[in-house]
Backbone:
C-alpha cells in the first residue's frame, strides 16, 4: 500500500480514538450503523471488524472481503494472498486470539506501529486498559499488545495500474477468443464482396481511421 494511503488510513483511525458506543454495552455505534445500513444494538453485533471495515472503506482501500467477523476476513485473506507472516507494517490489519490456542480469532485492529515484541494498533470495541474487556470494551482505543496474541496479519493487495499497451493487449486477447456472432456473418460476407473489408480477423480491434475508411467505402458503393 502506498505511504500516502497508509497515512490517510491511520489519520482517520486516530480521529476515531475515544468514540464509544451509546448507551454503554449496547453495540450501538456509527460503524455498525454504516455496516448494516441501519441502527442495530445487542450482543449479536460486536463491532471491532465493522470499525476496521469502515476506516478502510472511507479511505478507499479495499479489504479482501466485506465481513463482520475476524474469521471471515482471515479466510478471505488466505484465498486472496493477503495473509502476511513477516515484515508486518503500519496499515496491516491484526487479528488477535487471546486464548493462546490459535485458530480462535476474537478481535482485530489497524496496526499503527510495530516493535520486536509488540504491536500498537487502533482498535474498535475494546477497553482503554487491561482491566476491561479486550474484545467487547465499547470504545475505540490505541492498544499495545504482545505479538504472541496475534493470530494473523492481513494486508490489502497492492493496486496494479495497467499501461495503455497492457490494456490494449488484454482487449485484443479477449476479443480474439470470441466467435463472430451468427447474425453478423451474412453482412460480413457482403462487405467482403463489396470490397469494404478483407474479412480477416473480424473480432479484432480497429482504430477510428480504419472505421472511417470502411464507412466511406460503404457510402460510395
Residues:
Amino acid at each position: 500500500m502506498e505511504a500516502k494511503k497508509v497515512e490517510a488510513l491511520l489519520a482517520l483511525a486516530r480521529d476515531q480514538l475515544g468514540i464509544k458506543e451509546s448507551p454503554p454495552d449496547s453495540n450501538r455505534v456509527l460503524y455498525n450503523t454504516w455496516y448494516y445500513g441501519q441502527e442495530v444494538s445487542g450482543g449479536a453485533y460486536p463491532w471491532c471488524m465493522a470499525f476496521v471495515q469502515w476506516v478502510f472503506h472511507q479511505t478507499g482501500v479495499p479489504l479482501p472481503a466485506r465481513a463482520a467477523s475476524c474469521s471471515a476476513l482471515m479466510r478471505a485473506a488466505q484465498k486472496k494472498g493477503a495473509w502476511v507472516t513477516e515484515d508486518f507494517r503500519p496499515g496491516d490489519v491484526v487479528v488477535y486470539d487471546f486464548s493462546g490456542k490459535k485458530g480462535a480469532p476474537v478481535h482485530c485492529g489497524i496496526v499503527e506501529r510495530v516493535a520486536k515484541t509488540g504491536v500498537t494498533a487502533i482498535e474498535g470495541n475494546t477497553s482503554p486498559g487491561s482491566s476491561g474487556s479486550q474484545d467487547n470494551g465499547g470504545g475505540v482505543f490505541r492498544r499495545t499488545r504482545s505479538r504472541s496474541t496475534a493470530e494473523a496479519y492481513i494486508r490489502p493487495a497492492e493496486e496494479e495500474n495497467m499501461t495503455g499497451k497492457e490494456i490494449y493487449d488484454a482487449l485484443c486477447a479477449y476479443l480474439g477468443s470470441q466467435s463472430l456472432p451468427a447474425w453478423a456473418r451474412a453482412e460480413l460476407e457482403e462487405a467482403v464482396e463489396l470490397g469494404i473489408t478483407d474479412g480477416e480477423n473480424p473480432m479484432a480491434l480497429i482504430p477510428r481511421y480504419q472505421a472511417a475508411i470502411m464507412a466511406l467505402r460503404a457510402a460510395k458503393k
In short: Residues 3-15 form the longest helix (13 residues). Strands lie at 83-84, 93-96, 107-114, 118-126, 139-146, 150-154. The CA atoms of residues 84 and 205 lie 41 Å apart. The radius of gyration is 27 Å.
